[in-house]
Design brief:
Number of domains: 1
Distance between the termini: 41 Å
Strand content: over 45%
Mean pLDDT: 81
Number of helices: 0
Largest sheet: 3 strands, antiparallel
Number of strands: 5
Low-confidence stretches: none
Length: 59
């Protein structure tokens, strides 16, 4: 089985939150940084076919 990771995000530009759609067949960690370089909470994904995650990007 070949490895794959497909990530889509919306809306762009984001004001308060951004939505990620992750399609993968392997483990991964999603790190998102705001424009000041601050790490917003990370999310770990484990071998799932498709996951949707909303990340707040505004204080």
């Amino acid at each position: 089985m070949s490895e794959f990771i497909i990530i889509s995000l919306y809306p762009n530009p984001a004001h308060s939150s951004v939505n990620f759609i992750i399609k993968t067949n392997e483990n991964l960690v999603l790190n998102v940084f705001d424009t000041a370089g601050k790490l917003v909470p990370s999310t770990e994904y484990t071998e799932q076919a498709e996951t949707e995650q909303t990340v707040q990007v505004q204080d």
